[in-house]
Amino acid sequence: MASVLIAGSSHVKRFEQFVNQKQEFRNLHLNPNVCVTFYGMSGGKLTNNCHLEALEQKLRHVSPDFLILHLGGNDLDTATADEAYAYELCLRLCCIAETFTSRFKIKKTVICQLMPRYRTRFLDITIYNELVIKFNKALKRELVGKDFLQYWNLKGVKNSERTVFCDGVHLNNEWGMPIYYRNLRGAIIQCLKYARQY
After folding, report:
1. Dmax (CA) of the chain
2. pTM surpassing 0.85?
3. Which CATH number do you get for residue 87?
4. Which among 40, 96, 167, 181 could bridge 12 via Cys, Cβ 3.0 to 4.6 Å?
């Protein structure tokens, strides 16, 4: 039996609700010998110690073989964010992922790219999305050569011909969530193949 934890911000919380609504999406339609668990935090942040401690408790409880991590977007939406801050967040995410992977003997951790937003709370939308691009490029670069950590490009989210967001931040159930589903399922299958368990 292989266990997978998908953890992150409200994107993950909403995704769990989405997959539990329909029988065909349960457990991401993976083999019965794969168990997928979710841990989504509304407003989840890399810079919030309480959120990180809660995630650490979840990791200790689940003890997953693989971790899919999608976190950082809320941290970037701050009035003082700039390129240096985006890079600092990127390094913080890499450090957290590396620490958790080592501490909990996770075989592989996949870190998902940040998604663009069309509504922000504190930062100008154009600046936010420019920083997302810089963050993602830095993250991809930092993870090169680390076998136990992998960058995951969320294919189809940014360049979709259809509206995939329901509120400018979160994915809608009609188009966005099925794209997210295919991406996360693909990431898990790649992890299983990496460990020769699929």
Report:
1. 46
2. yes
3. 3.40.50.1110
4. 40
Task: Decide: residue 86, CB within 10 A, 0-12 exposed, 13-18 middle, 19+ buried.
Answer: buried
Give the pLDDT confidence of 124-146 residue by residue, as tens digits: 999 999 999 999 999 999 999 99
Identify the H or E element spanning 152: strand 149-152
Res 142: pLDDT: 98
**SS3 sequence, 77-97?**
CCCCCCHHHHHHHHHHHHHHH
Domain count for the chain:
1
Between the alpha carbon of residue 161 and those of residues 84, 109, 156, 158, the distances in Å are 32, 30, 9, 9
**C-alpha–C-alpha distance, residues 164 and 198, integer Å:** 30
Could you tell me the residue range of the domain that residue 146 belongs to? Answer: 2-194
Q: Answer yes or no: are the C-beta atoms of 9 and 41 closer than 8 Å.
A: yes
CA distance 22 to 48: 33
Contact (Cβ atoms closer than 8 angstroms) between residue 66 and residue 4: yes
> What is the sign of the dihedral through the CA atoms of 80, 49, 145 and 158?
negative
CA nearest to 9, candidates 46, 40, 34, 49: 40
Residue 107, classed as helix, strand or coil, is coil
Classify residue 16 as exposed, middle or buried by CB count within 10 Å of its CB (0-12, 13-18, 19+): middle
- Token output for 89: 């967040």
